[in-house]
Amino acid sequence: MSSTIQEKLFFLNCTNGQLYVGTRNLATDLEMMPCVPSGLLMSVHDFNSDQQQDAMLLWLEEHGRRLQDGIIKLQEEGNVRAICQFPEEPPLCSTAITNGVKVRASAVFVPEAADLEDSSEKYWFAYSIRMSLLPEGCFINGMYFGSCQLQRRHWIIYANGNIVSDVSGEAVIGKYPLLLPGERDFVYQSCTPLSTSSGSIEGSFTFVPGRLVDQKELHLKLKWHDSPFNFQTTFSDGHWSLNSCNNAHPIVYHPPALVNMCGKVVCLRKTLL
């Protein structure tokens, strides 16, 4: 659900067992990226191995595990039910709770937008920010507030440890969400290009207790700076930095492979030998 603008195509190589996903240059240059680390594959043609593991099987197993563990979840928008690929559990999702305000952030790689021939915007990443107010409401200096409203945000985006974007401004996507206790999350998503295959994003939000129209009377602000919301959410097209990395489940699928559910799988070779 993080990307539905461009068609996503998958290709299964029946000889080596690898699963590939097409990039932006698929139609012109047949440019593709592998979805699973080759070291995890055990081909059906390897007669010395008693356990065959092709990329499609590993990819589906990891997808199923993430669903079962609640890392990714089913969401409903109107009459549409779909699987959202933005992780909702740590370490793939960063969470900060300050004075009753909860903010969660996670990111996924978007391969169908990648351009491996472009030196400046080679990789694209989508990120999701979810804001909510706990049922207990907002408490600041012993004072209770039944709502709070976003005023400003500050983003710093890194690529290989170097700052590539530092943005401050009011609102997010032109909106000033008003958070009420126990109500549904306010969710917004955006994307960013990077020249490198890994990076991170950190930032802060400024909230006004109550409502923005009450700001002159309240003279109080809630701001994430020295809180866990300096979350360092990771961008990566790799296989390990976005994975849960526990000993029981060391296998991960390529994060972009399931950004949306409208992709097609095409077999590169129709006959299995």
TrEMBL record:
Occurrences of domain ApaG (ranges): 95-238
UniProt-listed Pfam families: DUF525 (PF04379)
Descriptive protein name: ApaG domain-containing protein
